[in-house]
Design a protein that fits this description.
By secondary structure, the chain is α/β, with parallel strands linked by helices. It folds into two domains: 72 residues, DNA polymerase, domain 1 (Orthogonal Bundle); 273 residues, TIM Barrel. Helix content is 37%, strand content 19%. The strands form three sheets. A ten-stranded mixed sheet has the order 3-4-5-6-9-10-11-12-13-14, with helices on one face. α11 links the parallel β12 and β13. α6 packs across α7 and α8 runs parallel beside α10. The longest helix is centred in the middle third of the chain and has 15 residues. The radius of gyration is 22 Å and the shape is globular. It starts with a helix and ends in a 20-residue tail after the last strand. The structure holds S-adenosyl-L-homocysteine. The site of S-adenosyl-L-homocysteine has 16 residues, from β10 and β12.
């Protein structure tokens, strides 16, 4: 009998409130026979006040707080350690999940904005040749609570009011963890959520065409970045194997749909890889593509994978020399294309784009 009670309590304990959307929280309280407005109150505590325990929730009656402590759990991540770049102030965090997996998140403070870069998976299944996260392999999707908690822990550290932008550009492919990613986006876009506006949130994808369309139809008004890296199917397939499943053509059609449906312009991310995608014909193809839809290009200098000791093709990749990057960008800008060159923020601490990786034990 005693054991049975224990089991029931343990089973109930796994209910994770962190990560529930507003509707889910309201439904949860209804399901335990409480008023639905408690869902709104908890939403506010979790996602606006960023509280981590029930005793800080002053408008929740003590009896209910105690009941919630019994049947739910709030904590999803443990802070393990962090490193700050002495050059740029970029800070990389290592967090541990309840099942002892490690993930990384990054905060990039700049003059006019501070961006939090979130992971959506433990590792990544995509295997892009230029990316360290791919080299570490893949363990599992992160829950919505784990995605949100990266923001929460970083925002508490930097001050919630200082964080202006959120990018889903850490470890993993957000659109392969579609349900949990979209729930996190719903939380950020809820009118009740103060802090970062959904207009300042960007999801970056390697190109999961059907999910790009689904995201468009979710009407969330989140910005979309496509990791393009080449305008040619064969080259793109060589550096991004996912291109064999969802071709460039399918993805370009999908981002055109996204731009039409949301009225937002698409960002194309483009890593500069020497002799692979930095030739004149690559620039011309980009110019052609940008004429087809509202878009801008984010040029990313290739960040080294040396800390992962790559082998084979990955070991042969070299960054385009800075002078060639400038020529390439000039060519695009001469055609009135908006081009940004992304800083290699954090490469001194292996926290720059594509460098996030933790070897599994
Ligand atoms: N899976 C998603 C988001 C994670 S990667 C995506 O592919 O978009 C975030 C960005 O960093 C992507 O544009 C990715 O292509 C880029 N990136 C990966 N490895 C890199 C490297 N070594 N140097 C520079 N950028 C890299």
């Amino acid at each position: 009998m005693g054991d049975e009670t224990k089991t029931t309590v343990q089973e109930k304990k796994v209910t994770q409130l962190k990560g529930m959307t507003l509707d889910e929280l309201k439904n949860f309280f209804a399901s335990i026979g409480k008023p639905r407005f408690r869902g709104e109150q908890i939403f506010n505590w979790l996602y606006n006040h960023l509280v981590t325990n029930y005793d800080d929730m002053s408008n929740i009656p003590k009896v209910l707080r105690n009941e919630l402590k019994e049947i739910t759990e709030l904590k999803t991540l443990e802070y393990l350690t962090s490193v700050i770049s002495p050059i740029t102030g970029t800070k990389k965090y290592i967090f541990e999940t309840n099942d002892k997996l490690k993930i990384e998140s990054v905060v990039i403070p700049e003059e006019k904005r501070t961006t939090v870069c979130l992971s959506t998976q433990v590792g990544c299944p995509l295997d892009c040749t230029f990316c360290a996260t791919g080299l570490m392999g893949y363990k599992r999707n992160l829950t919505t609570g784990e995605i949100f908690d990266q923001y929460m822990l970083a925002a508490k550290d930097f001050g919630k009011d200082n964080v202006t932008n959120i990018v889903f550009m850490g470890m993993g492919e957000p659109l392969l963890n579609y349900n949990n990613t979209i729930k996190a986006l719903r939380i950020f876009s809820e009118e009740l959520t103060t802090g970062v506006s959904i207009k300042k949130v960007t999801v970056s994808t390697a190109g999961i065409a059907p999910k790009i369309r689904e995201l468009a139809e979710a009407n969330l008004k989140v910005k979309l970045a496509l990791s393009l890296h080449s305008c040619f199917e064969d080259i793109r397939s060589k550096i991004m194997p996912i291109n064999n499943k969802y071709s460039l053509k399918q993805n370009i059609d999908a981002v055109k749909f996204y731009a039409r449906h949301t009225g937002l312009r698409i960002t194309f991310e483009y890593i500069m890889l020497k002799d692979i995608n930095d030739r004149d014909e690559d620039a011309n193809a980009l110019i052609g593509l940008c004429s087809e839809l509202p878009s801008k290009i984010n040029i990313i200098p290739f960040n080294s994978l040396e800390h992962m000791n790559p082998v084979g093709f990955a070991a042969e990749l070299e960054p385009t020399p800075i002078q060639r990057i400038d020529e390439f960008v000039e060519k695009l800008r001469n055609k009135n294309i908006t081009v940004m060159i992304r800083d290699t923020q954090g490469d001194d601490i292996s926290a720059a784009c594509g460098q996030l990786a933790i070897k599994f034990e």
